[in-house]
Design goal:
It is built from eight helices and three strands; from the N terminus they run H-H-H-H-H-H-H-H-E-E-E. It is mainly α and 169 residues long. It has a three-stranded antiparallel sheet with strand order 1-2-3, with no helix packed on it. The protein is elongated. The chain starts with a helix and ends with a strand.
Length: 169
């Protein structure tokens, strides 16, 4: 049985001590391949009313992924951990760092980050929701202006202000 399948099985069996040992063993062996397997295990724990345990285990998977330069995977894990953690603010620095790495070439990202207030003291969950709304308008995306301007294409985002330039029909 694959190590990640073992993690899910141990979570389903509520063998929490064995799960924690296997989780740490997987991380130490470099078995940090697919973040989805760690997230699936955390989802099992969350369904068993163990969200804090799930968040803690997920947060342990972040440093090896970051060390391997796998910031997108680390970000997926951090987002799920933040949704489960009693104190998601403890994950703020890692979230912001991974977001910056994943979106470093994104026009307007720093402005969007500032507008979302995720890097400041805003509640993490609502700040992430705001940031996701801003990021939902990447360059090249077509949008519809309900006020009568019709369909337009996002052609630029100001790196300083986050303001979008949209070419309408």
């Amino acid at each position: 049985m694959a190590p990640t399948a073992d993690l899910i099985r141990l979570a389903e069996e509520r063998a929490y001590d064995a799960l924690e040992s296997a989780w740490l063993g997987a991380l130490e062996s470099g078995e940090n391949g697919d973040p989805a397997a760690f997230i699936a295990t955390a989802d099992v724990l969350a369904s068993q009313n163990e969200p804090e345990r799930a968040a803690t285990l997920l947060s342990l998977a972040v440093p090896p992924l970051k060390a391997a330069g796998r910031f997108a995977g680390a970000l997926r894990i951090l987002r799920r951990a933040a949704s489960l953690a009693a104190r998601p603010g403890d994950l703020r620095a890692d979230l912001v760092g991974c977001l910056r790495k994943v979106h470093e070439d994104g026009a307007g990202f720093e402005a969007y980050l500032k507008k979302s207030q995720l890097a400041e003291k805003a509640p993490v969950k609502s700040a992430l929701e705001r940031l996701d709304k801003f990021l939902d308008f990447p360059i090249g995306r077509y949008v519809h202006h309900a006020g009568g301007w019709g369909v337009g294409k996002v052609v630029d985002a100001d790196r300083r202000t986050g303001d979008l330039t949209i070419d309408f029909e």
